[in-house]
Amino acid sequence: MTRPTDRLEAALASIEARGSQGRLAFTEVFTESAKREAFAADRRVASGMTKSALDGRIVSVKALFDVAGTVTHAGSARLRKLAPAARDADAVERLRAAGAIIIGKTQMTEFAFSALGTNPHDGMPANPRDPARVPGGSSSGAVVSVLEGMADVAIGSDTGGSIRIPAALSGAVGFKPTSGRVPTTGAFSLSSTLDTVGPIAKSVADCAAADQILAAETGAIPFKAAAPGNFRLIIGRGRLFTRCEDKVLEAVDRAIAICRAAGIVVEEGSLDPVLEHTDRIDKLGTFPSIEVGATLSQLGISSLDGIDPLTRARIEANKAVSAVDYVLMTRHRQAAIGAFDRLLGDNEIVIVPTTPIVAPLTSSVQEAAGFHEANGLVLRNPRVANLLDCPSVSIPIPGPGLPVGLMLLGQRHSDRRLLSAAACLESLLH
Length: 430
Prior knowledge:
Layout: H1 4-17, H2 19-25, E1 26-29, H3 31-47, E2 58-62, H4 90-97, E3 101-106, H5 140-147, E4 153-158, H6 164-170, E5 173-176, E6 196-201, H7 204-214, E7 232-237, H8 246-261, E8 265-270, H9 272-282, H10 287-298, H11 309-316, H12 323-343, E9 348-353, H13 368-380, H14 382-388, E10 392-397, E11 404-409, H15 415-429
Helix pairs in contact: 1-2, 1-3, 7-15, 9-12
């Protein structure tokens, strides 16, 4: 195993070697504190007293997490004058306690409120597979930090796909847990209803290792891939397959054929009956647009001046939602969750494309119309898992072209079983 200090030096060298792109991936790099953490990890490795699977691994955290002594600006110019955080977010505390080396805070879209990775205040890191394309968001710097060798694991937030979308568009693994599995205390809240915290990494195993620490699971059974006969896949045909680019459908069909050939039971199905409930929510409003206003109010932000116009438009679109409609939205969500619970049997997993399109060209989303079109498309499938409060993971489907993600949705609180199934699919597809 590479020494933690050597691993850190390689990560820091990767940031430096990429120049402006390396700096765009991070809002802050904690060089000195990371070196202290790496030296301590070296000593633990030498003595055989490592704390966890992430002890001595390099971890980046999204810029919406509190890190003691730094300002939690969540990608927004309006929040730069806030007081520095007095303590680490709960997720960061758990990572440090497990021996992870926190290398820095990563770039993100403003307030985590868009899915392409754009940020007019700080700029946007390029997609690692094609610099002319967006990396996906809102955890844009997170995915770039992993794929460009700047971190082993990145911790992001996922309110409507902000972990799984960049994973899919850039070619990584991204995991969204069941709500409440990982504490969100100390993280800027886009939506108190939908926010979750999870990892992005190059492998399902690394995501599983991070999840175990973030969820504070002690004495857990060692992680391993599920056997092909231990779960069933349900293809979620219907509207989540509409408007898909041919290259996305071809990649998904190829993955399904590989799974069937390996002996996995794959059946046709649909989430459309469940989505009738989520449609009722969308006719009234969206949780993030409403709830981010409460977060900003608590932070003393009384106007939207200076906020990205694209973000501002989405917030203002739901200002007129009444209290009655908000309550109805929560009730429709509970009905959707119940319908999904009844749809899936034990060890059944729904699969759909993570996003219906590959990463758009940056030039195509410069204007508002192009931005909103692409943003809505890449959010469409992943946000379903947040509304249904189920664990979901995106794994890359290998191929010659741009990255395509396969999204798995499992029963609520089946997080570890879902990750094991994802590891099985990962081994088959690679």
